[in-house]
Amino acid sequence: MTPPNSPVWPRDTWTARPLRSNLSQAHRNWLTTPDSLTSALKTVCPRFQVKILETGTRFPFPDEARLLKISCHQQVWSREVLLCNGALPLVFARSILSLRDLPRAWPTLDARDPRPLGEFLFTDARIRRTPLHFQKLSLNHPLRVRLDRFPLDLPPWARRSLHVRQGSALLVTEIFLTLPPHRSDPAQALSFFA
């Protein structure tokens, strides 16, 4: 496997808040959920489950490598999953971590474990999360290209943050494919399951 080519999109297009574009208020509410997305989805998705798509080692995308302060030619541990309500995929999630940090700071990560990472990222007091950053993915962004195999009902906004444990960072990126109901809208939640 060869590392990805140099990016052809702007270098630093991740922002501290979603820009005002064709983003509905409901989409913005989900995108900016400050706590565990897994916990938030479980409150409105009675058939919540994780579907593992790919795990293993690969090269990071250029913007991921910059954030992790590693080379694009340095392989990382990677896990890509769908967060679903039954068979309906809601969120595509990609987590990556420098291979050198896996045994030292993140020894409990198991790429085959079907549980969502959020179940321990938000319960381990030793893990510090950085603020969320957002990007509307361009057509040629490698994350957008990876979404081509899934139905995408929404503008392709991604959110990401680092989860830091013992000085080692795990990067988690999440993209909504279909909009679940927001927790504050029970009427929408009822129609979602009708």
The rough form would be described as globular
Terminal-residue CA separation? 45 Å
Quote the CATH topology: Chorismate lyase
Mean pLDDT: 82
Largest sheet: 7 strands, antiparallel
Q: Care to count the β-strands?
A: 7
CATH architecture: 3-Layer(aba) Sandwich
The CATH top-level class label: Alpha Beta
Roughly how much helix do the residues carry, as a percent range? 10-25%
Q: Could you give me the name of the CATH homologous superfamily? A: Chorismate lyase-like
**Sheet/helix structural class:** alpha+beta
Number of helices: 7
The Rg value, from CA coordinates, equals: 16 Å
Query: Uncertain regions: pLDDT < 50 for 5+ in a row?
Result: 1-10, 185-194
Give the count of structural domains: 1
Work out the strand percent: 25-35%
H/E series, N to C?
Answer: HHEHEEHHEEHEEH
Compose a concise summary of this entry.
With 194 residues, the chain is an alpha+beta fold. It has helices at residues 25-31, 37-44, 62-68, 102-105, 118-121, 142-146, 186-192; strands at residues 48-58, 76-85, 88-98, 128-129, 133-136, 157-165, 168-176. 22% of the residues lie in helices and 29% in strands.
Q: If you had to describe this structure to a student in words, what would you say it looks like?
A:
With 194 residues, the chain is α+β, with helices and mostly antiparallel strands. The protein has seven helices and seven strands, in the order ααβαββααββαββα. Strands 1, 2, 3, 4, 5, 6 and 7 form a seven-stranded antiparallel beta sheet that branches.
